[in-house]
Design goal:
Its cofactor is FAD. By secondary structure, this protein is an alpha+beta fold. Helices cover about 50% and strands about 15% of the residues. It folds into 3 domains: about 10-125, Acyl-CoA dehydrogenase/oxidase, N-terminal domain (Butyryl-Coa Dehydrogenase, subunit A, domain 1); about 125-235, Butyryl-CoA Dehydrogenase, subunit A, domain 2; about 240-385, Butyryl-CoA Dehydrogenase, subunit A, domain 3. It has helices spanning about 10-30, 35-40, 45-50, 70-85, 90-105, 110-120, 235-275, 285-315, 320-345, 355-360, 370-385; strands at about 125-130, 145-150, 150-160, 170-175, 185-195, 200-205, 215-225, 230, 275, 280. Strand 9 and strand 10 form a beta hairpin.
Length: about 375
Amino acid sequence: MMDIGVRTIFNEDHDIFRKSVRKFFTDEVLKYHKHWEKDGNISRECWLKAGEQGLLGTDTPAEHGGIGGDFKDAAIIMEEQSYVNCSGPGFPLHSQIVMPYITHYGSPEQIEKFIPDMAAGKKIGAIAMTEPDAGSDLQGIRTNARQDGDDWILNGSKIYITNGYMSDVVIVVAITDSSAKSKAHGISLFLVEEGMPGFKKGRKLDKMGMSAQDTAELFFEDVRLPPSALLGKPNQGFFYLMKELPQERLLIGIMSCANCEWQLEETREYLRNRKAFGKTLSNLQTIRHKMAELKTEICVSRAFTDQCIQEHSMKKLGDEGASMCKYWMSDLQNRVAGHCVQLFGGCGYMTEYPISKAYVDAKVQTIYGGSNEIMKELIARCIFR
């Protein structure tokens, strides 16, 4: 990869780990990714191999059944996935979003039931927040669960759920107290398992990008949930979500930053070999200056992203920093993609060139995890509070 500056946040053990992660994505993901794009999901075998390699739940404590590494190990996995431009594996959501909810708020029985199998790739996790009429506005959800004796009866639907089609366990966000003083005080989280009567999965959704990452609709029709399915305390779900969302936003920033670096390298190699006007494109001043601009923006952004990784590893990253990282890096990823496709010319519009996939994959980064417009509002609140 192109030199993007000295990175001081990783130690020698991290560097050794990175080599093994890079080999995994090269050997077990890159060569199969085009096939998975046609299928609309990656294989179960890939999940199991990732588990065997210790790439799932890397920063989940060993005493809970995880690998026992740190968040920087998780960041390395996300970066290396971005460096092969393969968006299919939903490992980050499974490992750094779903598993932490269970370890942070789950009972010992829930942790024992799910975490070891999730770390092994035997159970795939998803989280279901978004609904047809509720995206960034989480308080607008309609999916609900009412108590029936000791059980809960779940009804509703979710959409755009990553890992949804292959999921074995889904954290479902539902209203449990419609009379609460605000919707935020009446939301709970539930662990819904594959095979539960009334839980149905819709079709794999056909997206403009991230074609190998399964995304589905989920339906809940009178799903009877035992008391053990409640994750954490009743009516505390919204506050759990608010605590965990900064990490989700940082994940997006990390992946966006790494993909910017990949795009720059891919474009540099193309420009070195492509000839026009009697010389290689890399010798044309306009193109050279555009590449200089892109590298400068990426290097500056890399420094900020690494700062956020370090702060999060020290448990000091707040909502403002995570929101800035997500907004800035996903926005930059889209700008870089647009410029790089332009530098490729007609070739950049052809799907046989990976840069075209990077272009269509980039857009959703500004949408999920809270749209970038919401990120700006969160940052503004921190400025003026």
